[in-house]
Every structure is written in structure tokens, then in C-alpha cells.
Amino acid sequence: MRRFKRSTLIAALALTAAACTDPVDKAAKVRIFSPEDPPKVVASAAEKLPPEDVADNPQVARRILGMDASEVTERLGPHTYKATVNYEWTNKDAPPVKLTETRTFRAGPGGVSGDFHGILENTREQGLEVLRVEGKVYARNRFGPFRQRLRDRGMGERTRSELTGALRDVDALFQGRMQLVPQGTETYEGRTAWKYEVKLGPKAEVGTPRPLPALLQPKGNQDETTRRRLAFFEHRVPQSLEGQVLVDAETSVVLKTRLDGRLVVPAEKTPEAAELRMSMESALTEIGQDPQLKPPENFLPDADKPEGIADALDRFGIPRSKSTDAGVPSEQPEPEDE
Q1: pTM listed for this prediction
Q2: Residue ranges making up the domain that contains 144
Q3: Which residues form the signal peptide (predicted)?
């Protein structure tokens, strides 16, 4: 019996020793106990993107033109971004429709996790404002009060990316045909910048696209606005694009842009033939200056049901459901829809 126990113990020790020398186990231990990798944005910001290669290397050009705000902050530090985009739609059956959109973004220190303040406004009295200070997000529409957003954790990141993506949006709208021609260097905000002239490049040759599932159609077909929007994006043809782009020589961040472009929807493609003229100007200023952002003095707490909805129920005489405890509804039934 003793010999059996001793042989079992020896076999277990041998298996343990063999496991410790197994290269697969060693590699797993290295992965488990290695330091945590930095966020993807931090790693992207450490990548060298030579701005002098923009004209000859499409991959570098796309990376620089489409650089996200979080990476810009990692590369450049605190700064202020402002962009103005003008749209004018025309067709033969209606007067021109004009819209001007203004985007303002102030980034504080701290890189991807730092504070920021973004404002979006347009000439139709629409817009929003988002503020992140010390990891807490506050948001409001153009004329409403600030409300703290505790549960919508991705709102701040989405808004930061959308507010500063005017150049990326224009490049996508013109089907990635923005071509940059080098024009030497110049000084902007005390920094050396590569200057590029913008032209409309040739249509990119793409392979056979992967088949996609059919688009789901709503009952009663699409509404008129949706149908026209889808037709525009499907049949749009860029006609012209010109302007200028300045790229920081040290960080490869776009510092200033000026663009003018025109797209059309041919009459043979859709009955709603139209033309879109647009212009865009953007600039980065106050580079390296901390904006000293602070939370709003007065803001509403985060809530399951905003008070605006409850006030509307009271206005039309619809009784609210009472609750004896927070988050616990009472036995009183909800009013039925008429």
C-alpha cells in the first residue's frame, strides 16, 4: 500500500514538472502575467505617419485624413477645433435649400481619457452640447439644461468623434477620391506644416463586392425623405473638389483645411435629379493650451424618465403611475393608449 502511494506521488510530481517545461504552458503564463497592453488609440498615436508620403501612399493619406479626435489629442495635446460646413441643394422643381453647420471642440490634457467640450449648431436652430470633466459626461440640446449622463457611457466618445470628423465626412461623401498634391511647407501656429492642394482624383477600382442581404423594407414602403436620401447616396457622382490641407510635420495631424466641392445625381438614375454644392473650413488653434474645463454649475441628475415626458402626461391629464419606492412601480395600472 505504501509502495502504491509512493509511486502515485512520484507520477504526479513528474507530470507537474513536465507541465512546467511545456512551451505552450510557458507562453500562456507569459501572456497572463505580462503588463496590460495600452489602449488601441495610444498605440495608433505612437505610429509614425510621414506627412511627406501622403501624396504617394494612399494608406497614409487615408489614415491622416480620417484620424479620430482621440488620436489627435494623444498626438497633439490640448487644442481647439472649429469647422464650418455649408450645404446647398438644388433641383429643377424646388428653390435651393441651404444649411450651415458649425462644430466647435475644445480638448483638455489627458489624451484619450482627458476632458473635452463639444458644441454642434446649425442655421435651423438645432444642435447639441456635450461636456466631459473628470470622467463625468453632461449633455443637452441647444436650448435645454444640462443633464448628467451616467449610463450612456459611449455618448461622449461618439460625440467627440462625430464633431471633429468633418474632413472625414467630406472624404467619404466624395467616395474617397480626395487627392493631395504637395505644395511645399509653411508655418502655421508656429509649427511647420506640409501644404497640399486638393483635387478630385480618379474613381477607385474595386473588386467584386461581397453580396449583402436585402435591405429590410418597412410596411407601406419607405417615406419620401428616406427614399430621396438613399437615392442620393446610391447615385451621387462627384463633379469637382478643390482646396487646401495643412498637415503638421511633427505629429501628422491635419491643422487646417479649406474645401469646395460639387456632386450631382443624374436624371437618368432617379427622377429626383439634384445637385449639392458644399464648402468646408476647419482649423486647429490654441495648441498646447489647457482650456481649464469645469462641470456646469446647474445640471439635472440622470433619470430613467426625463421630467419632460412626465410634464407632458400631466398637461394632457394622463395620470402617472405612482411608486412607493424608487424603481418599484405601484399596483396602479398604466393608462391604456386610446
Answers
A1: 0.75
A2: 61-201+227-285
A3: 1-21
